Amino acid sequence: MDKNIQIAVVGSGYVGLVAAVCFAEMGHTVICVDNDDRKVAALQGGDTLIHENHLPELLERYRNTKIRFMSDLGEATRECEAIFIAVGTPQSETGDADLSYVEAVACEIARSINGYKVIVEKSTVPVYTNEWVRRAIERNGVDRNLFDVVSNPEFLREGTAVADFLHPDRIVVGADSDKAAALLQEIYAPLTSGEYYKLPNAIEGPCGPTEPPPLLLTSTKSAEIIKHASNAFLALKISFINAVSNLCEATDANVEQVALGMGLDSRIGPKFLRPGIGYGGSCFPKDVAAFRSVAEQMGIDFNLLSEVEKINVQQKKRFLAKVRSALWTLRTKRIGVLGLAFKGETDDIRESPAIDLVEMLLGEGCSVTAFDPAAMKRTQDVLPATSHLKYVNSAYEAAQDSDALLILTDWPEFASLDLDRLNKIMRYPIIIDGRNLYDPHVVAQHGFTYLSIGRPASN
Ligand code: NAD
Hints:
The chain has helices at residues 14-25, 37-44, 55-62, 73-79, 100-110, 129-139, 161-166, 178-187, 189-192, 195-198, 220-251, 255-263, 284-297, 303-327, 353-363, 376-382, 395-399, 419-425, 440-445; strands spanning 6-10, 29-33, 67-70, 82-85, 117-121, 147-151, 171-174, 215-218, 334-338, 367-371, 389-391, 404-407, 430-433, 449-451. It is of the alpha/beta class. 49% of the residues are buried.
């Protein structure tokens, strides 16, 4: 394939590690840096540490050949031409993005610059971060001609992260320098030229074969805003359909029919019109808050985003009310919970609405027996098992002797449970589905009381 570029990726989490293996898959040589020594050791030993399709096979293919792992950012900076910053940008107490990790990395890079470097913001950051990174590097005594800072936001989704990275809808490069833009174009050339997709063992896109993606060149500020605006818009779409689902419940309409009817309009599109228990994860909640905060600081009235957040909080409370409406009282009830991750196909529980609901149920005096195919370990680290909270190894064990079974995460395997078996082992045949995984009539035919989101109840 095209030119092999020496790339450093700083931060080996969901984004950094995926970017690193994908850059290797695209033919580049990568140093993956993390300041967590245990993580570095595990990755060196071939343990991906996160649940993500294709990640183990790519790590195995390139470990010790095209990818090295280390904690020494200085060495990585000296060896590489492009340095991608992919560290966390969590929400601070004020709602702003906490950029202290990005700042720490920028200062550390500055201390080791030994020639022209392009520093790339891969983390999701608010507008103007680019200028702060540049200033931080200059303040550490680096000549302005020795580096450029560009913004290259990441749009991958956990669960399909590798396929998304290699088959993006678009690649956004915000660069205020032609030289830096050219390097980023070279890095992504295997994708934009379509050459990667011709390889016999190329990883397929999440929806099968795709066209080469466009690379959109913008100013750095525009690129930073593109990422925040995109996530805020997706969160808005989710809150919108959740609000519509509440209206459907109040009027006995069916939100699935409504969403289908809306989504067939090509101006709206069918994606992100699935109602549920609210959005979560490490991105939408913090990015909506950060974008709202940026607007506030600029004196822009963007209260729409506060409404998006309000609907999202209410959606969890409405679901709890639904559980109560099915069980009358909650204290001492035994609840089976399917799903802890913030969505299916991932082990990520950050800001998971499922975890919030488990905590609410425990707070109401319920006993919870929970199962998730990948997120149990992470959940137990933050919510250890107690006499009221048990973790079990299958959906059926979670359902055993329960007063109701709740579906909180859209894992595909939860959509094909043996309903007759469930009915036999539960104390009461009640399913409350926060992800609309079943046809209400089918579940009712198996003798269940079935409540879902925005659809008429069946029993
Ligand atoms: P993560 O928490 O999984 O990974 C961050 C990593 O950075 C950790 O391994 C941490 O040890 C490391 N780190 C922190 N400080 C460091 C330092 N000084 N030097 C070296 N390593 C350091 O986070 P993530 O989910 O990969 O997200 C990273 C960024 O990408 C965030 O800004 C996020 O908003 C953005 N993003 C995330 C996703 C997603 O789906 N997770 C998608 C698009 C964008």
